[in-house]
Amino acid sequence: MDTSYLFRATLLDQLHSGQWQVGERLPTEREFGEQYHISRSTVRKVLADMKAQGLIAQTVGSGTYVTDKVLASRSTKKAAPLATSEAAWHTSPAELMDARMALEPAIIEMVIGNATTADFDQMDNCCTRAEAATSVEEFEVWDGMFHEIIARAAHNGFVARLFKLMNQARAQGEWGMLKKRSLTPERRLAYQAEHRALLNAIKARDPVQAKALATEHLVHVRRNLLNY
Fold this sequence. Notes:
single chain; 228 residues; 13 helices; globular
């Protein structure tokens, strides 16, 4: 069987099944070539096709990343194990915000201790994609992924699953309606600047500054969403 077909089918399956998450950086052409025993030109051709479908995005000097378009191809059945408790879908925005206030600053030291250059690249990509978003819905996807990828950078499976569940809760209708009503152009610019500042503090391995910035950002989000 054609090696490019096998690689294409495998990569599509991985994207659609959720093995590669939105915002996650894919291996390099060389790494794919070595893993599947195919030429870099074959890898490049398949990736170009995936890019044309909008499933991946490529950033010069940074890498290849999974886009939010793959979410549409994932069935509810495949996503269900990530939310075995229906609480994720029935959590109020106030409850979710309280959980974020308690948990996101608390994991900062773990993130700073374990984050890699690849993690920083993924965070940066989320910031860039959020800044380029042309709709509130697209901005919200990359906003949520930024926080989820920070959690993944702790390299702790339990933390990663917990934050993924919180990100799923953000997809519920009530949160989305509140975000849409509250997200003025000025607030969006403020969130983008706060994300960049938080990323810079994490990259600088400054836990005090990063915790303060994470808390300040969440306070702003809570005030804008819930008016307190």
